[in-house]
Amino acid sequence: MTLQTEFRNAMAQLGSAVSVITTDGPAGKFGFTASAVCSVTDQPPTLLVCMNRNSFAHAHFKQNGALCVNVLSSDHQALSGVFANASLRSEERFCHDRWQVLTSGAPVLSSSVASFDCLISDCHEVGSHSVFYCRVQAIRISEQPRGLVYFNRGYHAVGHEA
Question: Where is the Flavin reductase like domain (predicted)?
Answer without folding.
Answer: 11-157
